[in-house]
Structure formats: structure tokens, C-alpha cells
Amino acid sequence: MSSENPTDKFDQIVAQTRINREERDKGYRERALKMYPWVCGRCAREFNRENLQELTVHHRDHNHDNNPPDGSNWELLCLYCHDNEHSRYTDSQYAGGTADTQKSITTHNPLADLAAMLKEKE
After folding, report:
1. Which residues contact 111 (CB under 8 A, 6 or more apart)?
2. Which of 20, 31, 70, 117 ranks highest by number of CB atoms within 10 Å?
């Protein structure tokens, strides 16, 4: 029987998991920051070196292991918009749908008749 304390083993596993996550995050975060402008994809807030830590990389499909080299699964979001996106995703999961299903429900397009309205004014 091992003399190692189960709590110590758990702490080691948690610590190693955090290290692995930070290494993985650093890799795709650095790539995303080189690829995309430092602007939140939702609220358009601009970032600079002083506040760059508040700009996060969001995985569009919510799979943090899906990191294609072209960055097609990433978007840069500020902390607030990122938190809101994950809250919306969680809420949609509880409602029995997916975030994609929730997005496709929108039916109102306020600019749908804009071209016709502009033609009428000519």
C-alpha cells in the first residue's frame, strides 16, 4: 500500500493540469494575437499592451482542443463578452438546444427592405 496521501496526489494532478492548460493556452493565444487585430469581436473595444490581458481567445465550437493552424475556431473577445458568450452557451444547453440553434432562431432583419426603400426615394 502506498504511503502517499490521497490529498497530495490530487493536488499534484490539479497542479499538473493547470500547467498543461497554461502551456496549451499560451500557444494558441500567442498565435491568435498575431493573427487578429487586438479588438473584441463583439463590443469592438480596442486593446493595447497595457490592457491586453483582458482580451481572451474564445473557441467558437467551445472545444479548447480544436486549435486549427488557420485560427478558424478562434475569436478574440474581451473578458466581459467572453463571459457572456459562455453564459449564453450554458443557458442554451439547459434549454435543450445549442448556441448555434439559438442564433438561427432570429427572424427579424431590420434592414431587409432597405434597398426597396432607397429605390422608392429616387
Report:
1. none
2. 31
Domains (range + CATH), the chain: 6-102 (3.40.1800)
Sign of the alpha-carbon torsion through 96, 71, 36, 111: negative
Nearest CA among 68, 64, 77 for reference residue 38: 77
- Whether the Cβ atoms of residue 20 and residue 48 lie closer than 8 Å to each other: no
pLDDT 10s digits, 38-93: 999 999 999 999 999 999 999 999 998 898 989 999 999 999 999 999 898 888 87
User: How high is the pLDDT of residue 41?
Assistant: 94
C-beta atoms surrounding 32 within 10 Å: 19
Q: Cα–Cα distance between 59 and 81 in angstroms, integer?
A: 13
Report d(CA 100, CA 48) in Å as an integer.
31
